[in-house]
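dumping this here before i forget
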Amino acid sequence: MARYKPAAPSDEGQDSFLDVVTNIVGILIILVMVIGGRVQQIVLAPPPAVVDNEPLEREVRKLAETVASTESEIDELQAQARTVATAAAYAADARLQLTTAVSAAKAVLERRKQEGEAAGVAAAEQRARREALEDEIDRVRREAEALATAPADAHEILAYPTPIGRTVNGEEMHFRIAGGRIAYIPLEELFQLAKQHTQRHSGPIAQLASRIETVGPEQGFTLDYVIEAKIDQARGQVLIRSREWVVRPADDAYGETIDEALQSGSRFRRVLSGAKPETTITLWCYPDSFAAYRQVREELHRLDIPTAGRPMPAGAPIGGSTEGSKSVVQ
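structure:
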């Protein structure tokens, strides 16, 4: 049996290996050359300087502390804001309660004031009537004493047409005699103004309580009056009436002197010319003008005009009420 002979290595395989090695070496040489060229172009930078970070760190710590302090202050301010808001809410509630209490107190005070004024008007009227009667009694007593001690001389005696007194139920015209002056009191005109004023300002039924109103001035006089409202349930009506009234002159010296009034063309004469035959002239006379009152009364009797006298105490207001007395004409 023939033996196997290994084949001798061929030259072609060795050449291929050498070629590969040569190529690799060439590539390495080229890479070394390229890297060497590039290394020559690199400029070495100087080493970085050493920086001191301590001030910056201190500034950072200071800023951190400021931030923490600011946050603490913000929290404190927020807490204070909540406290102030709570206090404001409590103050608003207290203010509302105080306003309500003040309003109620004002209403009570106004009601008591009106009641006190009404009572004052009634008391003044009662005092005026009482003082008028006392003055009349004193005047009659003085006249009686004067007549008892007077010498027995002849005097003219005035005879009036109707010596018996009667109550006035018809129309009246009123005059005020004070300080030696006489002035026409426009009661009807003032009552008409009061009626119009009450109709305009009556308001809801719930507000129709007794109260004091004022109108004027009208021809030198102002009227203060107390109105009251009553509900007629049977008829379903609300009745408004004036319970009491007081008339006041704009000036105590208002009016004409008696000599001026008794002359033709005076205001006193013009007012009398508008009176009806059945109209009664009521004279409200104060103690300082009884002589003037007698002059006017004599002139009115001469003109055949019914006359009623109302003597008034000094300083008392001229007024009337639903419970007052009517004038008496003679």
